[in-house]
Each structure stands twice: as C-alpha cells, then as structure tokens.
Amino acid sequence: xxxxxxxxxxxxxxxxxxxxxxxxxxxxxxxxxxxxxxxxxxxxxxxxxxxxxxxxxxxxxxxxxxxxxxxxxxxxxxxxxxxxxxxxxxxxxxxxxxxxxxxxxxxxxxxxxxxxxxxxxxxxxxxxxxxxxxxxxxxxxxxxxxxxxxxxxxxxxxxxxxxxxxxxxxxxxxxxxxxxxxxxxxxxxxxxxxxxxxxxxxxxxxxxxxxxxxxxx
Amino acid sequence: xxxxxxxxxxxxxxxxxxxxxxxxxxxxxxxxxxxxxxxxxxxxxxxxxxxxxxxxxxxxxxxxxxxxxxxxxxxxxxxxxxxxxxxxxxxxxxxxxxxxxxxxxxxxxxxxxxxxxxxxxxxxxxxxxxxxxxxxxxxxxxxxxxxxxxxxxxxxxxxxxxxxxxxxxxxxxxxxxxxxxxxxxxxxxxxxxxxxxxxxxxxxxxxxxxxxxxxxxxxxxxxxxxxxxxxxxxxxxxxx
Lengths: 217, 240
Hints:
Chain A is mostly helical.
C-alpha cells in the first residue's frame, strides 16, 4: 500500500498549529454570533421595521452559501469601497454574522417555547420586563435549545475550513500546503480529518456536560 | 380600595366586559361566579391590568392605573395573584420561586428574602418542600407555592383566578383550606371560582356575572337564600 507517514512526520506540528487558527475563528465567531443572535432574537419580538430588517438579514445569511458570503465580502465588496480587509477580519465578520443568523432563529424558537403563564405571573408580581427577560425567559429558553446551539457550534468548527479559500492558514489550508510540498494527499488529509473529528467530539461532550448542569430535575 | 369604573373590554368584535362597575373593599372576600365565558377571569385580570380594558378606569388607592402607567409596578406589588395553572417559574426551586420577587421587586437582602420565603412556605404546609422544583410537586403543592409566592409580597389584595380548576378533588380541598385561612386578615380577596360550595363558605359577597355584565352583587347569605335575578336563580338551580 502506498502509505508513507514518515514523509509527513516533520509537518505534523505545522498541521496541528492550524488548530489555533481554526479555533480562534470558531470561538470568536461563536461568541460574537451568540451575542448578536441574542440581540436579534429579542429585538425581533418588537415587530415593525426592526423585525423586517432582521428577517431580511437572516434570510440572506441562511439563503446563500457561506463560501459565497466569504468571497463576496473579501473580494467583491473591496472593489466598491477600496478597503481590503485582512483574511482574518473577513473570516471573523462573515462567520459571526452567519452563525448569528442561525443562532437567532434557534433562540427565537426557544423564547417562544416559554409558557406565557410564567411571564404573566412575573408581571403580576411587579417584576420589570428587563428582569423577566433575563431571569425568567432566557435561562429556560437557553436550556430548551442547548442541543441545537451545540449543533450550530459544531457546524461552525467544520465550516471554518472554507477560510482556506481566502488564504488563511487554518487546518485545511495547511493540509493543502503540506500536500503541495510532499506530493502526498492521503496522509495529511487523514490527519486533518482526525483533528476535526477530535475537536468536535470534545465540543459535543462539553455540550452534554452543560446540558447536565442546566438540568433541573 | 379597588374600584372598577365603566370597564369595557373587547377582543376584536367580541365584547367580554360591557360597562362593568364594582368596588372591592378592604378585609372582604368576594367570589365571582357565573357560566363559562361570562367574563369572570377577564374582570379579575383587569384589576392588575394583565388585561388592559378597552375603556374605563381601574382605581387602586385613589390612583387610576390605566392612565398613570408609572404607578402600575407599585400597584402590582400590592396585589397578589394566583392562577389556574400555577405558573411557577419552572427553573427555580419552591423557595426560589417565593424569593424571586422579594429580591427583584422589594430589593430585600438574600437572607431576609430566604427567611420570608421559608416562613410563607411553612405557613401553607410546605416546609418540607423548600428545595423541590415545580415539576417535582403535586398540583396542590404547586398551587400552595404560588399562594406563598404571592403572600410573601404582603399584598393588600389577592386575586384568585380559578385556583382549583386544574386540581383533583383531594388537592382542591388542601388549596381551599389555605385560601380560607386568608379570610379576614385585612386583605381584599377576589376569587373567580366554579366551586359554588366554597364560594358560599368563604365569600362575604357574591358577584354574579352573565354575558359580559355583572348581574348582581349580593351578600352571600342572601344570594344563596334567594338571588335577585332570574338568571342567577337558574344558575343556582343547575348547580344543585
């Protein structure tokens, strides 16, 4: 069999180094995306023009491929503005916005799943809207949709692989570089596949731990 | 203390309350009875503006809370409410359910709020259930936690919206016992109920509603001897 891992050994630290780049983008986008999603899902309950704009935003980011969004922002928009963002900035912005679109739909579903009676009870006790939102609605909504949120984070980690297109040296990009230098494909691809798998297994276990922690039964 | 004046409530084209007038005095217990769809719950929910009347005034302690929206929170603090479906906060333990508004609304210290919560829960016979979550409690226990939660705010009035309709007969009795114990302790109690016997036992005044209107407001003894209106006579006859 034509497998020669010894040719790849010197490159393994380089491939592993991609984890940092991938995680940086995934974590930053997860945090920023969650924050935006929370704001969107709360704002869109107000109705009117805000709700319409947020829906248009969500439709755009859910209705076009991520690869297109990244290319459009990184190569398309600079033609109009003259400002050329670094690949890192482009990736960060597009991944944050993209995951905020998905997460805000998830959160909206979670918020709508909260029984209206609890909100009425809080109103009857004289609790302010702000406290009701953050003490009654959000904690329960989050718990209800935590599996869906973890799913979105796992998707996010995998999708970061498209940043190789705008020449950010993430895990995927590093494999391409190693393959070009060694003319070997199977071995580096196998290694990065295992890296992605390992990252997501860790992530999904963190999710299960969180679920257990948030459970109240 | 609480007075509803010319209250009307419409949902789209349906009139649920039509020009209703009623005054609730301190230290008295009122039972609102009548057929389903008569507007009983809506009337009750107008008292703390969970339902906003289409027209009319809700005057609490001399303040029209429909107009003076800034006063709404202060007023709601003083009016406790108990719901048909308990509406406990599902992610909080029994004790935390009672403590929550004490901390957030009354701004009590954690120690004081906890003391008050334990006191109130013991009073409704749930001293052994402090750390249980709502889904671990029976229906009757949930409703008693809800009552303790409302009482902990030391309200001047308590509103009960069909507090036993979701309970089996045994649990109904344990909840009714607790409600009865609140009688003539200085509070105004307003109870929407289908438990006619209970209304007779506990209420000072019966408010009989029919088709979006109050047909009569009568002292309980008189009402059960002989209601003034024909519709109420029919209603009572069907009950027995």
